[in-house]
Amino acid sequence: MTDHSKLTRNQSLVVSALRESDAPLSAYMILDRLREDGFRAPLQVYRALDKLIERGLVHRLESLNAFVACRHDHSHGHSHGHQGGVVAFAICEDCGSVAEIDDPTINARLMALATDRHFKTEKTTIEMRGHCSACAGESHTPQA
Amino acid sequence: MTDHSKLTRNQSLVVSALRESDAPLSAYMILDRLREDGFRAPLQVYRALDKLIERGLVHRLESLNAFVACRHDHSHGHSHGHQGGVVAFAICEDCGSVAEIDDPTINARLMALATDRHFKTEKTTIEMRGHCSACAGESHTPQA
DNA sequence: TTCTTGTCGGTAATGTTATTACATTATTGT
DNA sequence: ACAATAATGTAATAACATTACCGACAAGAA
Ligand SMILES: [Zn+2]
Ligand SMILES: [Zn+2]
Ligand SMILES: [Zn+2]
Ligand SMILES: [Zn+2]
């Protein structure tokens, strides 16, 4: 069912920039990284991002105003992960790593809660901010 | 445990503006509504919002870049609702109404998922965007 | 082919959201 | 009074996002 047509040049450049980054990028960071490739204006980035998000290749992190490449398999045209319907993100404040968590339980519970209230959900955002396993052990006392 | 000292003038004005609104307000909308009360600059709003959020009197809606007054009871110093630890918001795209949903199940599940990954959660955002019961029945056919 | 339609792209300007920097005033504790 | 802390005022700037307008190009219909 997924639209399987090829990405445009701008879309490829943007998704590549995100894939090569180990942390989320803001639209303007992406723009800066693509200057050499001919990008001049924010709109070039935002237009590409819109399409990529539409296809599920990129996620927007609302609490960061930034974007990440989806880590799920998109190689074959259909079923690009996210079975649960909602994805939760665990975002590390220290290193910027982002984990995608696909959990049917939470999805089901949210759907139930929405149904109870006769709320028709179009889109759900779940973002946990904190410290990943790699960073959690470090010395976080402000003064060394 | 809650700090029970009085709100400052600016903080009172900001929280009142939010309470009087039936939809979330952006910082700049709040600023506009408080011009007559002497507000001149965004920072006055943001500083008050920071304190109000710290106290749990106001919530920030990340997917909207806007703010709402908390609907829970804050009249007595302690225990200002939000027992579940996380609050989910159901935000109507049509009328702007915001419902706060306090659900221990989701909180527990998210904590479990975080623990599994040794992720130390500091703050969690859950926002459902959609249509509330009042608006869901309306004619949503674009042309009418 | 020619015409239309739709998608994509380039550019500029503008709109919206949030912060930094610095000076001042009010409050609180001693 | 004095020092320390919190709150405020103002200006400037940074960061994020959209609108408007125009041109290029491909696909499909006449
Ligand atoms: Zn994904
Ligand atoms: Zn980390
Ligand atoms: Zn609340
Ligand atoms: Zn509604």
UniProtKB/TrEMBL annotation, chains A, B:
Gene3D superfamilies: 3.30.1490.190, Winged helix-like DNA-binding domain superfamily/Winged helix DNA-binding domain (1.10.10.10). Its cofactor is Zn(2+). GO terms for biological process: negative regulation of DNA-templated transcription; regulation of secondary metabolite biosynthetic process. Zn(2+) binds at C92, C95, C132, C135. Transmembrane segments: none annotated. Binds 1 zinc ion per subunit. Keywords: DNA-binding, Metal-binding, Repressor, Transcription, Transcription regulation, Zinc. InterPro entries: FUR, Fur_C, WH-like_DNA-bd_sf, WH_DNA-bd_sf. GO terms for cellular component: cytosol. GO terms for molecular function: DNA-binding transcription factor activity; transcription cis-regulatory region binding; zinc ion binding. It holds the Pfam family FUR. Belongs to the Fur family. This is Fur family transcriptional regulator. It comes from Xaviernesmea rhizosphaerae.
